[in-house]
Write a structure and sequence with these properties.
By secondary structure, this protein is of the alpha/beta class. The chain has ten helices and 14 strands.
């Protein structure tokens, strides 16, 4: 099955400034992809090209196999967009704004009411639907913005810095809403805050100065690409046995044997290896005491990637 979003060698120039530099990226159906990077890294520019607000200088972007330039109207019909500075009509009530936006998206007749009711229920807006948007808290304004983006049931939901300016309670609630949208929708979300991407995304694309440094899985998906194992046996013997397993990319000693039990982080090349790790350890006469999935340390990865990129630029 082809990816729902396919970005190929995308570049964008603003005059003499290169904002996006040959970025290639694929986003699968139903996943939450996080675009992570400091301000000025190109995140918002990529979203604006994806949603049809900007044209690329080079490269292509496809949504559901539709080119966002040559088949712009069809592609945009499959995308719901919430920009960082949400443009809401403050003089409208929520109950007026959502039907208005539904009609702008091409819905007619009973379909308008059904779409609005579904969005109100999903974003828990029933208690504020009769209020003026100007009277809403920032958290509820963000919910209204996401609700209008969901009208018409788009395949892709694009959220640019959705937790920016929210208080801690609102941030927690917004994370829950974003995760609740996964599966039914493909979600592309940006943030310059590591913790936000770590808590909501399935995968994270790390950007710096317009370049894509890497795409890495954040949330476990059943593929044990990183395992933490506790093994009884001599350090060098254990490490050698683990490194000899096919598809193992790296073995890190997290704690040396004390007195004879050590902890090791085993990383594979995206193929399940738990059975082979167990067989290798037990087959060598070593003691396998514990084995578990090890989620990615996004903070360490981000520092490593950006540090490496900065070093290469010197």
């Amino acid at each position: 099955m082809s990816p729902l979003i396919a970005v190929e060698r995308l570049s964008k120039w603003y005059g003499s400034r290169l904002a996006v530099d040959r970025v290639s990226l694929e986003v699968e159906r139903g996943e939450v992809m996080g675009l992570l990077g400091p301000n000025g890294s190109g995140k918002t520019t990529i979203l604006r090209i994806l949603t049809g607000y900007l044209r690329p200088s080079e490269g292509t972007v496809r949504v559901a196999d539709l080119d966002v330039v040559t088949r712009s109207r069809e592609a945009r019909a499959r995308v719901g967009y919430v920009p960082e500075d949400v443009p809401l009509y403050e003089w409208m009530r929520v109950s007026e704004f959502l039907p208005f936006m539904a009609r702008l998206r091409g819905l007619r007749g009973p379909a308008v009411g059904r779409a609005v009711e579904a969005a109100v229920e999903r974003l828990a807006l029933g208690g504020v639907r009769d209020l003026l948007i100007a009277k809403l808290s920032r958290g509820y304004r963000q919910r209204v913005a996401i609700a209008q983006a969901l009208l018409g049931d788009p395949a892709v939901l694009v959220l640019d810095e959705p937790t920016n300016g929210l208080d801690p309670r609102q941030i927690i609630e917004m994370r829950g809403h974003i995760r609740g949208l996964a599966g039914a929708h493909t979600v592309l979300v940006t943030s310059h805050i590591l913790g936000e991407i770590e808590r909501v995304a399935d995968r994270a694309a790390v950007l710096l100065a317009g370049r894509l440094l890497g795409v890495h899985r954040v949330r476990p998906d059943g593929r044990d690409v990183r395992l933490r194992v506790r093994v009884r046996g001599p350090l060098e013997v254990v490490r050698a046995r683990l490194q000899a397993i096919p598809d193992v990319r790296a073995v890190t000693v997290e704690s040396e044997p004390t007195p004879d039990v050590g902890t090791y982080l085993v990383e594979s090349r995206t193929r399940p290896i738990a059975d082979r790790v167990a067989a290798a350890v037990v087959g060598a006469g070593l003691g396998l005491l514990e084995m578990s999935a090890a989620p990615l340390d996004l903070e360490a990865l981000f520092l490593e990637l950006t540090g490496r990129a900065a070093g290469a630029g010197r």
